Amino acid sequence: MKNKSKNIFKGGLGQLTIPIIAICLLVIFNLIRDPSFFSIGITHNNDGNIVLAGNLISIINAASELAVLAMGMTLVTAASGGQDISVGAAAAIAGSAFVKVLKSGSGITGGTVLLAFLVACVVAMLFGAFNGTLVAVFKIQPMIATLILYTCGRSIAYWINGGATPTVSGSILTAIGSFIPGIPIPTPVIIVIVVAIIFRLVFHFTSLELFTQSVGINGSAARLNGINSTWIKLLSFIILGLCVAVAGVISVCRLGLINHETILLDVEMDAILAVAIGGNSLGGGKFKISGSIIGAYVIHMLTITLYAMKVSSTDVKAYKAIVIILLVVIGSPVIKSRFTKLMTRLKNKKPEASLKGAL
Asked: Tell me, what's the pLDDT at 16?
């Protein structure tokens, strides 16, 4: 009988405490600093369509690629106990393959875009399988295994389009990268919701979540219970490849071109941080994808906040690092353990105090 895994969007608040507190603190800080910071307005874009605008819309829109990557990164982290540092380079490859197919056709139609997306998915999945094979079969530590593609991935993306940075344009691409006519919500935000729903359905109707957590907690015990840990790890990298393709295509459609040097540059570090801020153990095991999604929005809200405070772009990374270090340390197992012990002691002291008062 197929065991259903526990729903990732339900359950205790414990693992989501840190990301939710981080979001609340940023919201309170911005409301004090500028009460209109989160105001949402209605405006017309360049195509004359009615769309939503404001800092909040900018945050959830700009974080779309990171949120999609964070979902896949969570699965890889949970299964392998390590992280894939090549997602930015792999997205450049997927984006280059996407553009290559678009440019090879006679015109950009719905069929061409769909074909280009499928090719980008296949390419990204193959590179994901390459990373997964190194980790699952050859037992190479994930960061070392993915360092290969991290190093050469953008060069591969460069070769795909012959060293050029071709531009692509069309109403369909514009709709994917910005807004669908008649829908005021940015399309990338809708894509994030769709991807999250797919993950939820997969975890609900299969045992993938349970198997992934089992492999991440104790691979040897999982094998003794009939779980193919090698396949689970490999599958997690392949699924991350799909997420990489989606993120790469969104980025290309936003910009209308592919630049192998700058597309999703340094996104791998933000993806790892989103997983950590989301309360997930970077050593593998139990995970909550909803936490990683919130973590992605925390990172972008922090970035937008710093820019709103007129912090220079060169200093933003330093301020982000300080805040993220605090969040990660507060959410670390050591701090959580000590906090739990402190709360237990306080609870145990209350009955004693009330008993003395009665006497």
From this structure: 83
| Contact present, 256 and 177 (Cβ < 8 Å) | yes
**Which amino acid, 42?**
I
Give the angle 267-259-61 at the CA atoms, nearest 5°. 50
User: Does 35 lie in the same domain as 55?
Assistant: yes
What's residue 327's pLDDT?
72
Separation CA 200–CA 267 (nearest Å): 24
Q: N- to C-terminal Cα distance for the chain?
A: 58
Beta bridge pairs of residue 53: 41
Q: Let me know: does 200 contact 9? Beta carbons within 8 Å.
A: yes
- pLDDT tens-place string over residues 205-260: 999 999 999 999 999 899 999 999 999 999 999 999 999 999 999 999 999 999 99
DSSP 46-105: TTS-EEEESHHHHHHHHTHHHHHHHHHHHHHHHHHSS--TTHHHHHHHHHHHHHHHHHHS
Residue 284 belongs to some domain of the structure = yes
Q: If pLDDT is split at 50, 70 and 90, which confidence band does 5 have? A: very low
pLDDT of 8 over the 70 cut: no
pLDDT at 148: 96
In a domain, 229, yes or no: yes
Q: Are 285 and 213 in contact (CB under 8 A)?
A: yes
As beta bridge partners, residue 44 has 50
pLDDT at 48: 79
Across the chain, which distance is largest between two alpha carbons, in Å?
A: 91
Q: How far is C-alpha 70 from the chain's CA centre? A: 2
Domain that holds residue 134: 14-310
Residue 105 backbone dihedrals phi, psi, to 5 degrees:
-85, 170
